[in-house]
Design brief:
Layout: H1 4-9, E1 17-18, H2 24-34, E2 38-43, E3 46-52, H3 53-61, E4 77-78, H4 89-99, E5 103-108, E6 111-117, H5 118-142
Parallel strand pairs: 1-2
Antiparallel strand pairs: 2-3, 3-4, 5-6
Amino acid sequence: MTSVKQCIEKKAATIFSVRSSDTTEKALQLMRDNRVRAILVMDDGMLAGIVSQGDCAIKVLLPNLDPKTTQIASIMTANPLTVTPSNSLDECMAIMVHKHIRHLPVVDQKKVVGVVSIGDIVKSVIELQGNQIKFLETYIKGHGG
């Protein structure tokens, strides 16, 4: 079973974030430039929330608000669910499915150390299945198959 720690160690160490006082436009530019679908909201080094492309579209663009002036604080999910490095990816997947979310900040001793996305979990599952298939092929071939 893969842990969150093993997952985030395979990823780039960069954590993309904005402040709650930043504009929606700044958040969208950061997401676009780094090809991510959600970013953390950090105020004074502490996790304040998370904001996704969907939040920006549904809460700003659809109601015709101005992304240049709409602050992240008004659209972010405050106090998001978090996981720790010791959680398993199975636990993360269960949380994501149950809560209908796609990103979980990873917090270790009150410090944000990464983010786990549904894409990370899918990659891990595919890798694990590939390894199991190779093992079974080797086992079968080694035993007269």
